[in-house]
C-alpha cells in the first residue's frame, strides 16, 4: 500500500491534450468541436467529471469525439478486475482522454486513440496503479504509405522508452483489436498497452505524454492527402459495411466500453465512438480483385509495416 497518487499533473496534461487535438482537427474540418462539460450528480454510482468535445456532420469529419473523463468509484467493475482478481472490491480513480474520428470520405481512415491512468485504492491507500493507451487505424481503402507513416510515428513515439516496446505493443494491438467472432482484424493496428507500471509513475507518465503528443503527427497527414479523393455511393456503401465491424468490436469486445457501462459511466460520452451510419449485409463478399477485396487481402492482416 502506498499513499494516494497525485493525479493533478496527469489531469492537467490530459485536458491540454484534448484541447490541442480538438483545435487542430476542428481547423482541418473548418468547424469547431462543440464542448459539453459534465459532472456526475450527487449519489451517482460513479463520481467525477469530464468534457466531451464533439463534431458532427462536418466537411471532413462526419462524426468525431474527443473525450476527457476523471471518475471515481467504490468498487472496480468486472472488466477491470478480471485480470487482477486480487483487486476485486477495491475502489478506483481513473482519468484519460479517448477519441474516435469517423471521416466522411471513405478514403480517409477511421482512427482511435486513448491514453489513461488508473489507480486502485483500498482503505484510503493506493493498492496499484497503471497506465494504458495507444492508437490504431481502421482504413476502408488501403494505402501502404499511410500504414507505414502511421506505424512509423507510433514506433518513434515509443523509442525513447526502449526499442522493445514498439514490437511488443504492436503485437498487443494486433491481438486486441481483433474480431474473434469474425476471425478478422478491425484495421491495420498501431500500438496498444494496458496495465503498464513497470516503469513506475514517472516513466509511465512520460510515455503517456509521448504517445498522446504523437497522435496529430500520425493522423493529420493521412487525412490531408486523402480528403479530396473523389468517391461515390459504392465507396460510401462499403464504408458503412466496414463501419459495422467497428460497431461490433466496440460493443462486443472493447474493455473500455465495458468498463464505462459497467461502472455507471456517462453513456452518451462512452458511445460517442459509434459511427453515424453503419450497415450489415448477410454473407456479403466484395468482387474478386476489387479495391474492396484488396482491403481484406492486403491490409487486414498482421503485417510488419516497417520492414525494409
TrEMBL record:
GO terms for cellular component: cytoplasm. It comes from the Bacteria. Substrate binds at residues 98, 114-116, 264-266. This is Oxygen-dependent coproporphyrinogen-III oxidase. HAMAP family: Coprogen_oxidas. It comes from Chitinasiproducens palmae. The lineage of its organism: Bacteria, Pseudomonadati, Pseudomonadota, Betaproteobacteria, Burkholderiales. SUPFAM superfamilies: Coproporphyrinogen III oxidase (SSF102886). Residues 246-281 are annotated as: Important for dimerization. InterPro entries: Coprogen_oxidase_aer (IPR001260), Coprogen_oxidase_aer_sf (IPR036406), Coprogen_oxidase_CS (IPR018375). It is found in: Cytoplasm. Homodimer. Its EC number is 1.3.3.3. One of its GO terms (molecular function) is metal ion binding.
